[in-house]
């Protein structure tokens, strides 16, 4: 599932008349990169979760998925901004008891995530698996505290980061994620936080991780990150095959 809602306030006024995920990144709409990330990983069932006044604009752009080599794309509407974990709940019926790959629609990866999905399947699709990347300013992200080969906690936008490894917007979850998300309480900003979901898996001893190869770009964090993403795509491409 691709999460493509939110107000896009950090990119205002570009988002005054359109959804953030419909903005261009180099030569393609932002949402194209997310769809192709999943398709290149072998996923052919995709749900787009969106909201706001411009939700209807996704349908004429993406259609039924034929442009991307798949037969169908599903859509659902998030009536209010309640956080990533709240958006997860909209996919319970759609997932039909299967494990899910949750991808933030403003994230771009240089290399395919196919290897990470394969390793999650090899582990029996049990628990959760995160993709981490080393960043220059970890205070802007959820940051993993790592001990040996384990993540012991994730701190959301910490003033004193426990590492330089940020949690990217690609999450692999077993079907229990929906029950876990339903038990969450809203954070101080009134949203159900994905970091709390991930910490729930950590508490159960069922969270694994791997480090991303190549660049990871968060298009929606700021105008600087939006520009950086476009430059990286222009210079190095995106969703390239990687034999690992």
Features:
244 residues, alpha/beta, Spore Coat Polysaccharide Biosynthesis Protein SpsA, Chain A, two-stranded antiparallel sheet, 8 helices, globular
Report on the architecture of this protein.
This protein has a single domain (2-236), classed as Spore Coat Polysaccharide Biosynthesis Protein SpsA, Chain A. The longest helix has 14 residues, at 223-236. Strand 9 (142-147) and strand 10 form a beta hairpin. It is an alpha/beta fold and 244 residues long. It is globular and about 45 Å long. It has helices at residues 30-40, 58-62, 84-88, 92-95, 114-122, 177-182, 194-203, 223-236; strands at 2-3, 24-25, 28-29, 46-51, 73-78, 100-104, 107-109, 128-134, 142-147, 150-156, 165-173, 207-211, 216-218.
List the helices and strands and how they pair.
Layout: E1 2-3, E2 24-25, E3 28-29, H1 30-40, E4 46-51, H2 58-62, E5 73-78, H3 84-88, H4 92-95, E6 100-104, E7 107-109, H5 114-122, E8 128-134, E9 142-147, E10 150-156, E11 165-173, H6 177-182, H7 194-203, E12 207-211, E13 216-218, H8 223-236
Parallel strand pairs: 1-4, 1-6, 4-5, 8-12
Antiparallel strand pairs: 2-3, 6-11, 7-13, 8-11, 9-10
Strand order of the largest sheet: 5-4-1-6-11-8-12
* Order of H and E elements: EEEHEHEHHEEHEEEEHHEEH
- Structural classification: alpha/beta
Taken together, the total number of domains comes to: 1
In terms of per-residue confidence, which ranges show pLDDT below 50 for 5 or more consecutive residues? none
Radius of gyration: 17 Å
Sheet with most strands: 7 strands, mixed
Q: In which range does the helix fraction lie?
A: 25-40%
What's the quaternary structure here?
single chain
């Amino acid at each position: 599932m691709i999460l493509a809602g939110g107000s896009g306030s950090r990119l205002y006024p570009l988002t005054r008349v359109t959804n953030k995920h419909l903005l261009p990144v180099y030569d393609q709409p932002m949402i194209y990169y997310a769809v192709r990330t999943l398709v290149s990983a072998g996923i052919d069932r995709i749900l787009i979760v969106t909201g706001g006044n411009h939700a209807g604009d996704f349908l004429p752009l993406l259609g039924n998925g034929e442009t991307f080599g798949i037969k169908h794309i599903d859509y659902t509407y998030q009536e209010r901004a309640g956080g990533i974990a709240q958006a997860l709940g909209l996919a319970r019926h759609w997932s039909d008891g299967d494990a899910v790959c949750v991808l933030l629609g403003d994230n771009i990866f240089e290399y395919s995530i196919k290897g990470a999905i394969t390793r999650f399947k090899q582990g029996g699709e049990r628990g959760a698996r995160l993709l981490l990347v080393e960043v220059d300013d970890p205070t802007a992200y959820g940051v993993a505290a790592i001990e040996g080969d384990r993540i012991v906690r994730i701190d959301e936008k910490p003033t004193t980061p426990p590492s330089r490894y940020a949690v990217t917007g690609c999450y692999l979850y077993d079907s229990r994620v929906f029950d876990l998300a339903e038990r969450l309480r809203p954070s101080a900003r009134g949203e159900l936080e994905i970091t709390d979901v991930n910490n729930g898996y950590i508490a159960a001893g069922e969270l694994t991780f791997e480090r991303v190869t190549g660049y990871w770009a968060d298009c929606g964090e700021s105008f600087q990150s939006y520009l950086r993403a476009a430059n990286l795509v222009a210079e190095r491409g995106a969703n390239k095959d990687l034999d690992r």
